[in-house]
Amino acid sequence: MASTLDAQTTETKARKLLDSRINSVRELVTARQSLDELREQLAAAEAADVKAYRAALSDGWSADELRKLGLDEPDKKQRVRRRPAARKSSPSEAANRSQPAAADAADGSPAT
Length: 112
What we know:
Largest sheet: none
Region (Disordered): 64-112
Number of helices: 3
Distance between the termini: 84 Å
Protein backbone atom coordinates (compact mmCIF):
# COMPACT_ATOMS: atom_id res chain seq x y z
CA MET A 1 0.00 0.00 0.00
CA ALA A 2 1.41 3.31 -1.03
CA SER A 3 0.67 6.16 1.31
CA THR A 4 -0.21 9.48 -0.20
CA LEU A 5 1.32 12.65 1.11
CA ASP A 6 -1.04 15.42 2.00
CA ALA A 7 0.65 18.82 1.96
CA GLN A 8 -1.77 20.40 4.42
CA THR A 9 -1.46 17.56 6.95
CA THR A 10 2.33 17.63 6.69
CA GLU A 11 2.41 21.40 7.10
CA THR A 12 0.14 21.18 10.16
CA LYS A 13 2.43 18.60 11.78
CA ALA A 14 5.49 20.72 10.99
CA ARG A 15 3.85 23.82 12.50
CA LYS A 16 3.07 21.95 15.71
CA LEU A 17 6.73 20.97 16.00
CA LEU A 18 7.89 24.52 15.29
CA ASP A 19 5.35 26.01 17.70
CA SER A 20 6.72 23.83 20.47
CA ARG A 21 10.26 24.98 19.73
CA ILE A 22 9.21 28.62 19.51
CA ASN A 23 7.40 28.36 22.85
CA SER A 24 10.51 27.03 24.56
CA VAL A 25 12.55 29.96 23.20
CA ARG A 26 9.84 32.40 24.27
CA GLU A 27 9.97 30.99 27.82
CA LEU A 28 13.76 31.24 27.82
CA VAL A 29 13.66 34.89 26.73
CA THR A 30 11.09 35.67 29.43
CA ALA A 31 13.27 34.00 32.07
CA ARG A 32 16.35 35.91 30.91
CA GLN A 33 14.49 39.22 30.97
CA SER A 34 13.33 38.49 34.50
CA LEU A 35 16.88 37.62 35.52
CA ASP A 36 18.22 40.87 34.05
CA GLU A 37 15.57 42.89 35.91
CA LEU A 38 16.38 41.15 39.19
CA ARG A 39 20.11 41.78 38.72
CA GLU A 40 19.39 45.47 38.20
CA GLN A 41 17.22 45.53 41.35
CA LEU A 42 19.97 43.78 43.31
CA ALA A 43 22.60 46.28 42.12
CA ALA A 44 20.34 49.18 43.14
CA ALA A 45 19.68 47.61 46.57
CA GLU A 46 23.40 47.02 47.13
CA ALA A 47 24.17 50.64 46.23
CA ALA A 48 21.48 51.86 48.64
CA ASP A 49 22.91 49.62 51.38
CA VAL A 50 26.41 51.05 50.90
CA LYS A 51 25.03 54.60 50.91
CA ALA A 52 23.06 53.99 54.14
CA TYR A 53 26.08 52.35 55.81
CA ARG A 54 28.28 55.32 54.92
CA ALA A 55 25.61 57.68 56.23
CA ALA A 56 25.55 55.80 59.54
CA LEU A 57 29.33 56.13 59.77
CA SER A 58 29.06 59.84 58.96
CA ASP A 59 26.45 60.24 61.71
CA GLY A 60 28.96 59.05 64.28
CA TRP A 61 28.49 55.30 64.41
CA SER A 62 31.68 53.27 64.35
CA ALA A 63 32.06 50.11 62.31
CA ASP A 64 32.45 48.16 65.58
CA GLU A 65 29.24 49.58 67.02
CA LEU A 66 27.32 48.76 63.87
CA ARG A 67 28.78 45.26 63.86
CA LYS A 68 27.64 44.76 67.48
CA LEU A 69 24.15 45.71 66.32
CA GLY A 70 24.33 43.02 63.66
CA LEU A 71 25.03 45.45 60.84
CA ASP A 72 28.20 44.23 59.20
CA GLU A 73 30.01 46.25 56.60
CA PRO A 74 28.46 45.85 53.14
CA ASP A 75 30.05 43.21 50.97
CA LYS A 76 32.68 44.61 48.71
CA LYS A 77 32.21 43.96 45.05
CA GLN A 78 34.96 41.98 43.48
CA ARG A 79 36.61 44.00 40.81
CA VAL A 80 37.23 42.16 37.63
CA ARG A 81 40.74 42.58 36.39
CA ARG A 82 41.12 42.44 32.71
CA ARG A 83 44.22 40.69 31.63
CA PRO A 84 45.92 41.76 28.47
CA ALA A 85 45.28 39.43 25.58
CA ALA A 86 47.90 36.76 25.16
CA ARG A 87 50.29 37.69 22.43
CA LYS A 88 50.73 35.07 19.80
CA SER A 89 54.32 34.58 18.83
CA SER A 90 55.65 33.25 15.60
CA PRO A 91 57.84 30.13 15.59
CA SER A 92 60.92 32.29 14.92
CA GLU A 93 60.22 34.45 18.00
CA ALA A 94 59.85 31.34 20.13
CA ALA A 95 63.16 30.03 18.80
CA ASN A 96 64.87 33.37 19.53
CA ARG A 97 63.65 33.27 23.12
CA SER A 98 65.01 29.79 23.67
CA GLN A 99 68.44 30.49 22.08
CA PRO A 100 69.89 32.57 24.96
CA ALA A 101 69.11 29.77 27.40
CA ALA A 102 70.77 27.25 25.13
CA ALA A 103 73.80 29.54 24.68
CA ASP A 104 74.14 29.97 28.46
CA ALA A 105 74.03 26.22 28.94
CA ALA A 106 76.78 25.78 26.35
CA ASP A 107 78.96 28.38 28.14
CA GLY A 108 78.56 26.59 31.44
CA SER A 109 76.84 29.64 32.88
CA PRO A 110 74.32 28.89 35.61
CA ALA A 111 70.70 29.05 34.51
CA THR A 112 68.62 31.87 35.94
